[in-house]
Design brief:
alpha+beta, signal, five-stranded antiparallel beta sheet
Amino acid sequence: MHLLTLNITELVIGLLRGTLSRSSTDPLSDWDWACLHDDATWQAHGKLVAEASLYLPGSFDRPPRNPAEKISSGYKAWEYMYYVYGMLPGFLWAVQKPKYYWHFCKLVAGARVALLLGTPVKFRPPAHTLLVEYVEEFEELYYSRRADRLHFCRQALHALVHLMPENVRVGPGWLHSQWALENAIGNLTAEIGSHSKPYENLSLRGLRRAQVSALIAMFPEALEVPKQLPSGAVELGDQYVLLHPTMRNAQVVPPKDSAAICAYLTSEGIAVPQNWTPRIIKWGRLRLPNGEVARTAWKECAGEKRGRPVHRARMVKVRLLYIFSQLANDRVAEVQYFLRLRRMLEDGGTDDVDLTLAVVSMFTPPNAAIARDTYGTLQAFRYQGDASREVIDVKSIVSVVAMLPLPPRREEAEDPNATVLYSQRFFLMERLAFDSNLIGREQIVGHADGSEGDE
């Protein structure tokens, strides 16, 4: 925890701001990497981070506060992580010199893999290579074999070289980091019930916990506590749950949405009557298997228009499977609303609901050149809004993501076609270790969560 969330981040921020200690032989004018040294630039950067917090869904736990105001007053480990490994790849795009920016992206790419709860084998070698290159190039770019910069080369920097080999030897870092250790110590000491024999009591508490853990591992389903769903929730299977708010009465959808629904049904081999206009009941939320809750533009945009601070949870990662090629393609979409459809029978009746769908607005595919040059750390998308309408099965939604505005570089802003090429451009920020809820938290859903009443 300390290595990636505190030690390395403190070094990176110190370099960007030019606040590391300097000798008289090393003037600040030689630190051409300190792109955030100027106070006005630092304050503007801090404001950018603070304004970006509303683009982060609630499942991201603690959004980073304004670093220009709060970084020296109780900045949390989660804030450091999302600030450095989530936001900085996008916010440095417009202000940092390319050679330093590409170098920083190597650190981010390796750190994101190291922070996963389960590290796929295929990710380990490239992550290790990037971290080793980061350390070697750090000495060339910053230290430059100068004695008055020797303090740049900290022990934490060298530890990055061992991060992935230790991942193979003893498992992912979260298993043996302070996250696990401090949590276990706090829980066990809180359970001590004997002041006269505390250590004996602590040993027995630890033994009981080990026995319970063994039973849970052997009989996970028998000991699992059933989750209570809010009133009106609909279980869809595979741990997907449809949640209120919802409309009371069915309404006719706009022509663009109607065309998208008909196109989806046709692609699924379902006959659609000519001139059929769908009447649907909108649903506002969907709980995913990873515990996150996806929301909709239908409800969130209404809150934003009323001036309410809404943490956007309507941006989702969608995994589309092409059956004939057996290839999965991940896209990012803005959920407009969820809906359920019944299949019409030959006798004029309806079957049970067998289709739960989402009407979405797809972002364009990520800019391939930017993704390649940044080792996948910066994925820039164009928002299409009402120009895009597609319908997908809700079970193709993988996770809730954040889409943050990507500031343009100077040459991009000065381009005569800047409005066409670089407007409505966002970069992807995913929840760190999003494949599990053990680190972070599962969103607790209630009956009225995110709703001001059904319509």
